[in-house]
From TrEMBL:
GO molecular function, one term: ATP binding
Coiled coil, from the record: none
One protein family per Pfam: AAA_31
Domain called AAA: residue spans: 58-176
Record organism: Listeria booriae
Protein family according to the UniProt entry: Belongs to the CpsD/CapB family.
A GO CC term assigned to this protein in UniProt: plasma membrane
Main EC class the enzyme belongs to: transferase
Transcription recorded as keyword: no
Reaction equations catalysed: L-tyrosyl-[protein] + ATP = O-phospho-L-tyrosyl-[protein] + ADP + H(+)
Protein name, as recorded: non-specific protein-tyrosine kinase
This protein's record includes keyword Transmembrane helix: no
Gene3D superfamilies cross-referenced by the UniProt entry: P-loop containing nucleotide triphosphate hydrolases (3.40.50.300)
């Protein structure tokens, strides 16, 4: 498939090209990715999609955010979940969705689902932020309450995009991969080692997830990314 290119500026506003530059070639890159995901899901719909990477600082959170906006633009009820409990980022991309409760408050029964999930300044898009970073993220991810919550939320949305920790850093991504319909792996050009990319794919396959495809990303001053193929 053809490659698509888009830029990465320093300001969060400029990075959300699908929101602020929706008619640009860069925003079209994400619509191209969305279209290929949907095409890959002709036989099996990818309603819940996990975005992860082998390494930190690969741009997965920003890609998750822009992809979520493209689904919301189709008038699909879309939820972006920040499950990178150790280094949450989504609330920085969508500052209007900051919450001191979020997912951790929900799992601790401090708030209800409708209080933990926040509407973004994008039609049809909601965000479930982390809230307070938990002391034991792995325990929360692996809890029966987390699994039940995910199943409950899945019934309420047309598309769920999940930002997770890097696969090679902690076990969280493998656990989450077992819940979702499909996974996209972000590879950072000139940064991610080939061996790490292969090991990450192996871990995801062991978890039983469908690896939909890969986005190659350069998070320097300019960012070149493209989606390719189906696994």
């Amino acid at each position: 498939m053809r490659s698509k290119h888009f830029r990465d500026k320093s300001a969060s506003k400029d990075k959300l090209v699908t929101k602020y530059e929706s008619q640009s070639a860069y925003a079209e890159s994400f619509r191209y990715i969305r279209a290929n995901i949907d095409f890959a899901g002709i036989d099996q719909e990818y309603k819940s999609i996990m975005i992860t990477s082998p390494d930190p600082d690969s741009g997965k959170s920003l890609i998750s955010a822009n992809l979520a906006i493209t689904y919301a633009a189709l008038e699909k009820k879309t939820l972006l979940i920040d499950l990178d409990l150790r280094k949450p980022t989504v609330h920085k991309i969508f500052p209007e969705c900051y919450s001191s409760y979020g997912l951790t408050g929900l799992l601790q029964d401090i708030v209800k689902v409708e209080e933990a999930i926040v509407s973004a300044d994008v039609p049809n898009l909601s965000v479930l932020p982390v809230g307070i970073v938990p002391t034991d993220p792995a325990a929360l991810i692996n809890s029966a309450k987390m699994t039940a919550l995910f199943n409950e939320i899945s019934a309420e949305y047309d598309r769920i995009i999940i930002d997770t920790p890097p696969v090679m850093a902690v076990s969280d991504a493998q656990t989450i991969a077992s819940w979702v319909d499909g996974t996209i792996l972000i590879i950072r050009n000139n940064y991610t080692k080939q061996d790490n990319a292969k090991k990450a794919l192996q871990k995801l396959e062991v978890a039983g997830t469908k690896v939909i495809g890969t986005i190659f990303n350069n998070t320097q001053m300019k960012m070149n990314a493209y989606y390719y193929g189906n696994k």
